[in-house]
Model the fold of this input.
Amino acid sequence: MTPADAEIIAHRGFSAVAPENTLAALAAAWDAGADAVEFDIHTAACGTPVLFHDDMLSRTTNGVGPLKRRTLAQLKKLDAGSWFGDGFAEERIPTLAEALEACADRAGPIYAEVKGFRELEDLDRMVRIATEADLLDRTVFIAMNWTLLDRMRSQEPALRIGYIVDDADEVGESLVRARGDERALVDLRASLLLEDDLLAARYHAAGVPMAVWTVDSTSEADALVAQRVGRITTNEVAALLGWKRGGPAHPSGGR
Done:
């Protein structure tokens, strides 16, 4: 496997040049040539899935308190871009439906990480939104809490899912769950593979595809491709695309 074979996944959109989990970040990722995008999902108080990483609003908006206590109407009043740069003052928290619509005419997988929800029906709603957008086959729902994926699969057996592996203790169960499932993958913290040269071989032997997060160094990307890891999630989309294409890997210069 060579760098040219790697799928470059934009982490929270192109989060090095635009505010994470916004439509601007998704557009920047696709425009830069990313092979795929990744974003996070929480659920508003009214049950609407929205793109957001934290439980609390204060880091990436001018709001305060838990996101789950705010309705969509309240969330839409918040500034979700100025924290990153004045030029993004008009950015708002997008809904999952809006994000999928923004990706509909682009080509490539969409990795949607489920971070938070109020009730099980919220998970059903996420699956329904992807179905109604006609993007079910391109969307991979990923989560650290694997029971959420069980619930979502119960609503749509053909759902593409990814088991996020954050700790070496989770490797065994992830292999059991993903082995033989053609619509499942594992999404590993990159350091697990970089620190254990034999780990990737276990997944290859089981026929389980791998993704990794979050890789901003081309030297780390080289090491992972040498282990035949085909999907690399990065903040530094331009740099990793340069590495993939064999040209100069210029950092974005963003945060």
